[in-house]
Amino acid sequence: MRAKEFTIIEARRNPDQNPRAQGHRAALEFLKGLESRHYRTGRQEFNTYWYGVSMTNLPKLGVNPGSQYNTPVGIYFYPAGYYMNLKDRNKELDFQDSAPYIQILKLRGNFEDIDDMTEAVFLAYVKKLHAQAGKIGTLLGLSEKQTQDLLTKIVSQSSDEANVNTHGGHFWNVLYSLGFYAGRGKREASPPRSSVVWNAILRLLGIDGLIDNGAGIIHPNEPTSGVAVDPRSVQLVRTFTNISNPDLRQIDDVRGRGLTYWSTNLKTMDDVRYIASEGVKNFHYREQYKKECALLFDKIRTVLNTNSLAYARLSPREVKNLGALTLDANIRKDLMMDYYTLRFRRIEPWLAHSPFYGSVASDTAQELVRGLTPYQSDARARAMIKRIKNSQRPDPQPQES
Questions:
Q1: 65: domain range?
Q2: Is 97 within a domain?
Q3: Does 233 lie in the same domain as 93?
Q4: 135 and 191 together in one domain
Q5: Are residues 353 and 386 located together in one domain of the fold?
Q6: Cα separation of 6 and 59, whole Å?
Q7: CA 30 to chain centre
Q8: What is the pTM of this model?
Q9: How far is it, in rounded angstroms, from Cα 401 to Cα 398?
């Protein structure tokens, strides 16, 4: 599920006399509006208990599978009530207070208050762990019997080894120990392997996420926090640009902030895909940001040209969107030609051995020819179209005698 950034741009009367709240102040006002609607209507969909705030470096909400923290892979957030309490008093968050983007998300699914876990709930989850021993063993590389023995040992030691001596703390220690075991011998059991297994075990237990209301179980440096281990259990509601971020605070418009941020921070193919999917709506040439557009386009070309499979992950429309960052028609044409040349070269060997060669190759060729049509006056384009058409010619059939 791809999260979308929602941006509202509207005309306002007397903006100098009635300035729009920005950054943390805007996010706080938005949450207070939800809270007010909940009190007026009694509808749980506006209850801020079911909302969280995630501070991100990217203008999107998603799981970071390469996390370097000894915690499960997931979407981390502050409970909305905690965030509102801090920002009402102009206090900073424990971590990432100046991150470029403030994401308001709605929680949907089974979220367990780990700080308030009772003994009965803890034992019920231990029982579920034993019931799932076969699947957990697959994650750990153990037999079901070995996993059962490991679980018994870990649970019995959890009260002594847990950093927080509560049933929720014991539960967290059991999960940590299983994740640590999964990563044994792999960079001293460091993430991401242990974090991925930790996430998988929580989902096996039917848990979509955990909330810690001040006990410091999830992380001692962030006593109040939450984590969603299943991305489908959260819904992105609003995104606010954090004007307290020193790199963005001087830029007035949302699109300008985005161009500025990505011109220095784009690094991976996932970043390129985000820019391409957002398209000209948020990322296109702006004269006042021509330097940032040029830097961003250069970074995109560098990523594409150093990743042999990069172009295969993009559609023709997405490549066209990337070209909107420059006014130079020749550069845009070269980008499209590189795309079709490399993409067809990568796909062709697979098609040759595919049992569906006829229909798949035909559809692919038609798509490529349609995309190249505007550039038929270019010698490279003509050669590519000829190559595609020739590849569709059926092998000669033997004549019957």
A1: 23-110+224-241
A2: yes
A3: yes
A4: yes
A5: yes
A6: 10
A7: 23
A8: 0.60
A9: 9
